[in-house]
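Lab notebook, page 48
Experiment: co-folding of the full assembly
Goal: obtain a model of how the components sit together before planning crosslinking
Operator: M.T.
Materials (sequences as entered):
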Amino acid sequence: MRLQSDSAPVNDTLLRAARGRVVSHTPVWMMRQAGRYLPEYRKLREGTTFFETCRNPDLVAEISIQPLERFPLDAVIVFSDILVVPQAMGMEVLMVKGRGPVFPDPLRTTEDLGRLLAPDVEETLGYVFEGLRRTRTGLNGRVPLIGFAGAPWTLMAYMIEGGGSKSFDKARAWLYAQPAAADRLLAAITEVLVEYLDHQVRAGAQFLQVFDSWAGMLGPRAFERFALPHLRVIASELGRRHPDIPLAVFARGAHHALEGLSKAGYDVISIDWTLDPALARQRVGPDITIQGNLDPAVLYGSPKSIREAVGVMLQGFGGERHIANLGHGMLPDHDPEHAAVFVEAVHELSRQA
Amino acid sequence: MRLQSDSAPVNDTLLRAARGRVVSHTPVWMMRQAGRYLPEYRKLREGTTFFETCRNPDLVAEISIQPLERFPLDAVIVFSDILVVPQAMGMEVLMVKGRGPVFPDPLRTTEDLGRLLAPDVEETLGYVFEGLRRTRTGLNGRVPLIGFAGAPWTLMAYMIEGGGSKSFDKARAWLYAQPAAADRLLAAITEVLVEYLDHQVRAGAQFLQVFDSWAGMLGPRAFERFALPHLRVIASELGRRHPDIPLAVFARGAHHALEGLSKAGYDVISIDWTLDPALARQRVGPDITIQGNLDPAVLYGSPKSIREAVGVMLQGFGGERHIANLGHGMLPDHDPEHAAVFVEAVHELSRQA
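Observation: model returned without errors.
Model output:
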């Protein structure tokens, strides 16, 4: 048995692809790969609330590594939630069954900004860092460990809307009715995120992804005005502090933003399934790695149709600077066997190409 | 006083813009312009359920015309709902306060397709046609009357999902797990829609819009495979039967589909606020009218900021073949005074241009 150095995983395909280096196969992982579709996840979660689980570093490590025990994935993402940051800033967030996240007391007026804390991330989010450390130990260098955070606009959207929403109208109202307050809120969140992601790297994260899950609610001008500048700050700050850690951004639904994102300081742009791989490649140019983008609903189809869809996707991306993933997260009623087909198809078909 | 012929409204700016003729100003209307943001609408709805209102032709006419009594709109859209078609096909649909539409018994398996009826539209949807006739009479030729329907994919999405959803996973699952059954369902819906829209024209509709509200849930390949062919059938059938009636399509979120839609037989393509007007114009070419696309959240801002946003939008579209609208519907907490600012700004700024 070979001893692993701390910084070089045995399988560094994800990190190589993120940097545009030669790889033997297209690396693959899945958003929400540790989750409810896995019976072993549901079993481990029994009797604990969602956020209790997030705060238990041993459970975090075990859950994060579960999918790697089933599938030959090229990365593990730490089990956590983007809403731990609003919690650290003093907001209560509950996970309500069948409804998703609920903020009992969302930000309603600009005066509510006074309620927000500028937290010491080590003190308030230390459990995430401990979870990363234990996951990293548990991985023992097998594959790289991904850390993550929600993007400023997405966190703002939740903090104002008070939960999930079809169009986040209350949050979008702030952008037009009180843009200066929106700027203050976004800047405050960004400041926390920079420290949070910095500490994630120090705790063992080897690749970072920023999830702008509700970027698609913004038109091009609003995205450029309220979302992109803060994404740039995050990339430049993290890039300065940790130049060797690849940075990925997933601005879901922001189809118009590919060009802007490709100049925002990220190594990897993750795209959803509404973008054509070949067109996305043209638009971001040759120097960015693209991650994605199979429609998660494809996994409801037969193994044969999954393999076909993977083949079409790989061909679209053309084999260079690609990290295979879904265009959004795994779904609770997905069949784990179909996830296996997806992972294997990516490896097999990309090796043949 | 001039007598109006049945077919030529005094203000035919909408129809002229749809056909690419010269207009004195950019015509404007708003999706969901008859709705909860108007106190007179809320008053009239008191004591009736949503679908009771839809089935009452006198209420339909009064509600449809309400916004025209407030704002110098260039069109009126009949008050109704896209889900009256699934109802006509035998499905129960309730409108539940705070939750939206609910199908107590959605389509779960392909066998459930056997439950669907091929309705006589005159018998099952005659109330819509009567509502159109009374609205047309009430309008007395002031502005054109818009009829509408939901697109096949969007109606399928509701019928399977059983209500609104963030990603319509159950409906998307059909596309991959049982595509042949999806095809059958989509074809059956399309057949009803052709008759339904045909009868709307015979009852007085002078412009038709097909709402593919959940088109954005589909990737480019799925849209081309499951949504576009049926949209084409609708356009060609209606175009054949009523060559003088402009046809509009609003495939919300299907940013990738502009090129395909511009060749699908529609005169007008309605776009949401995530598309840049000038880029949309480039992509659809000069022979299509584009409708849209102010972010409805802009109406939460000040009158000054609304006027500025309208100016930017008009400039983006360039003045030719444009029908001004929002990029989605009016919202219940919008201020009617701000809707007035929007309408007036479109007229005033487009006359100056």
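Interpretation: The interface with chain A takes residues 164, 166-167, 169, 172-173, 175-177, 216, 218-222, 253-256, 273-276, 279, 295-302, 305, 312, 327-328, 331, 333 of chain B (CB under 8 Å).
Next step: discuss with group before ordering constructs.
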